[in-house]
């Protein structure tokens, strides 16, 4: 005889800061729920970050529900171990009803309107399902990687820990987003010879006119701007994050300066064949575009300062310290000295387990502030779910509260409907 599935009003899939924030607000309202996490709560911060990893936003922006940062350095940038400790303390406060080591393998609507939730520990039913697994589940590695010689060590950014992991020799870092730029810096500071295939990521200043740029942007209301009011609308969700670092108290990352110091820069990596790595002839364009974003943010701060009559020290805009000469569009791998490659080209989501009509043609969820058109299905923790901070410690708690308010209303409506039905 097949066992009847256990029922729980709300199922949360994912036990990171997003899922835990939803659990916090559900507990505040006394709503029964379960959190399913295939690993352990908030595990990615301890298992998928390099040793020198730190936040790129100041600690004062860490504001999980009921758990604001209260350490001694609000203007600093928590290091990996401090982030893990901060999240462990959050878990201890929330005390979520979490099933760690349990994977959700299928969610689909039943004929009676409930959701069937299949997991590695058994079957459940639920009225509401919150997808809190994030958009960074599957590391992206291009097919060209399969063609590279077996003598080349390859790893994704989520596997990189420190320079000592890599064999002696030169290192190719592919991608210049936040992870790529910071890993390239980590290797560069360790004295490794680094080759960097640059992408189209923008950059921003760490400090400008006497303050952290994040503080200026917060005063300017940027972090409260919703996706509906952003000039790019939904398109902002596809933007690459600006590269900058909080390392050693925070500083700019200037790829041009790295080049002056010996790092080899190339355009976008396009392929590999016949022993040669091939790069696009767009390095100058990519560097110029990154600097344009950098100076554009600073110019917006200048306008804000002028319009509000704020006293702030003057500061010149950035001028390039290095320009690429003749473009290098190919590199003979055997002659390059490269013995390892770190792929830093991002992740893709994995929502294959969710059978619901909530995705667009590109496989991305369609939602309004995390609420989808399919009743009872919600998303949380995605970049620009509602604001810039939706995928970060700063605003995920507000997003979670909004989603939980919607859940509470739906559950109340369902209870009312059941009452009149009987």
Automatic annotation (TrEMBL):
InterPro entries: Auxin_biosynth/cation_transpt (IPR050982), CHP04046_FMN-dependent (IPR024000), FAD/NAD-bd_sf (IPR036188). This is MSMEG_0569 family flavin-dependent oxidoreductase. Keywords: Oxidoreductase. It comes from Methylorubrum rhodesianum. The keyword Oxidoreductase applies.
């Amino acid at each position: 005889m097949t066992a009847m599935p256990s029922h729980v009003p709300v199922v949360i899939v994912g036990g990171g800061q997003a899922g835990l924030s939803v659990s916090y607000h559900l507990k505040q309202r006394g709503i029964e729920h379960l959190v399913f996490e295939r690993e352990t709560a908030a595990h990615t911060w301890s298992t998928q970050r390099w040793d020198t990893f730190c936040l790129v936003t100041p600690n004062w922006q860490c504001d999980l529900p009921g758990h604001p940062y209260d350490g001694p350095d609000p203007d600093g940038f928590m290091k990996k171990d401090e982030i893990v400790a901060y999240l462990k303390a959050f878990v201890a406060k929330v005390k979520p009803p979490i099933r760690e080591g349990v994977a959700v393998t299928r969610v689909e609507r039943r004929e009676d309107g409930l959701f069937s939730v299949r997991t590695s520990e058994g079957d459940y039913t639920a009225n509401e399902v919150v997808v809190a697994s994030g958009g960074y589940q599957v590391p992206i590695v291009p097919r060209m990687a399969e063609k590279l010689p077996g003598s080349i060590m390859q790893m994704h950014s989520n596997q990189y820990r420190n320079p000592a992991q890599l064999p002696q020799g030169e290192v190719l870092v592919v991608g210049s987003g936040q992870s790529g730029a910071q890993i390239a810096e980590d290797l560069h500071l360790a004295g490794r010879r680094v080759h960097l295939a640059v992408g189209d990521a923008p950059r921003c200043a760490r400090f400008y006119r006497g303050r952290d740029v994040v503080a200026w942007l917060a005063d300017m209301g940027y972090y409260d701007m919703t996706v509906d009011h952003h000039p790019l609308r939904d398109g902002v969700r596809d933007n690459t994050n600006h590269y900058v670092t909080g390392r050693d108290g925070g500083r700019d990352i200037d790829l041009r300066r790295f080049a002056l110091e010996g790092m080899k820069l190339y355009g976008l990596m396009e392929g590999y064949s016949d022993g040669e790595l091939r790069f696009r002839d767009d390095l100058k364009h990519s560097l110029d575009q990154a600097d344009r974003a950098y100076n554009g943010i600073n110019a917006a701060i200048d306008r804000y300062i002028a319009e509000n009559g704020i006293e702030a020290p003057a500061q010149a805009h950035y001028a390039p310290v290095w320009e690429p000469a003749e473009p290098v569009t190919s590199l003979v791998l055997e002659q390059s000295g490269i013995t390892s490659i770190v792929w830093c080209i991002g992740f893709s989501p994995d929502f294959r387990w969710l059978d619901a009509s909530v995705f667009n043609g590109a496989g991305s969820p369609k939602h309004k502030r995390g609420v989808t058109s399919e009743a009872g299905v919600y998303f949380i923790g995605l970049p620009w779910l509602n604001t810039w901070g939706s995928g970060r410690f700063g605003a995920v708690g507000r997003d979670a509260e909004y989603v939980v308010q919607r859940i509470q209303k739906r559950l109340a409506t369902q209870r009312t409907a059941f009452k009149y039905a009987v």
